[in-house]
Design brief:
With 258 residues, this protein is an alpha/beta fold. The chain contains 8 helices and 7 strands. α4 links the parallel β4 and β5. The longest helix has 29 residues. It binds nicotinamide-adenine-dinucleotide.
Length: 258
Amino acid sequence: MRFEGKVAIITGAGGGIGAATARIMVGEGAKLAAVDVDGALLESLMGEVSGMAGEVVPYVSNAMDPEQVSATVEDVVNRWGRVDILVNCIGGTAGAPDSRARIEDVTLEEWQKVLEFNLTGVFLYCQAALPHMKEQQSGKIVNISSQVRYGKSDVVASYVAAKAGIVSLTNRIANEAGFYGVNANTVAPGLTLTPRVAAVRWDTLTQAERAKYSERIPLRRPAVPEDQAKAIAFLASSDADYITAQVLEVGGGEFSTL
Ligand SMILES: NC(=O)c1ccc[n+]([C@@H]2O[C@H](COP(=O)([O-])OP(=O)(O)OC[C@H]3O[C@@H](n4cnc5c(N)ncnc54)[C@H](O)[C@@H]3O)[C@@H](O)[C@H]2O)c1
């Protein structure tokens, strides 16, 4: 029960990795604010975690709206008195009509949308949660980058740049807030078969294409959401008390080729 009595916020909690993380944390006793713009996804999460050790309150809220972010964090603090853990799972290539577009084909509007989707909400939630963490002299922040941030794959430049930005943002927070007992770390997933990614990518491949893809991963399979959630939960727990400003690569060993 690593999260017994801990107050956590997960953004993008209705998504693949967010929901898997929510299941672990609530299963181990967390009081969780589950934030997502999609109320139906949150409802389905509520069904999954009801009866588990912890408590969950759903917040249908837009992580890119500063007022909604402040209101959510303030409500969490009024309800439970503190914020121990912030996990930002929002992000993705939504906003880029072609997630493999070459630089010449990316419009300014798409570029800005993808940067905003991947960076702004994370920044706003960190900004809103940090004063509470500093005041209580403890806190754990885990942000999600991606192994494509190295820029070696064919993934669209806006997403790659935003995910590299997540690492720098997180390290800056670690540097600023370490004095106050706040840890900030990044998890960098490789391909992870969330329902969305499975539908648009993995399920469209033939058996032979899947086998070829898996062969380049030392552990010979893409990740499942629980692989990422376990790494996130580790960094959000007291097991990681002396770990900060680090990137945990969760790609089955594939990162050196990306
Ligand atoms: N799945 C992968 O293969 C993979 C690989 C590398 C990195 N990542 C990163 O991991 C994180 C989680 O990915 P996932 O695959 O679970 O994504 P997902 O699309 O399944 O979940 C994202 C969730 O964020 C919610 N959301 C979207 N906009 C929002 C907003 N403005 N405010 C609040 N919530 C909002 C969505 O409704 C969705 O439930 C993302 O940052 C993604 O970039 C994923």
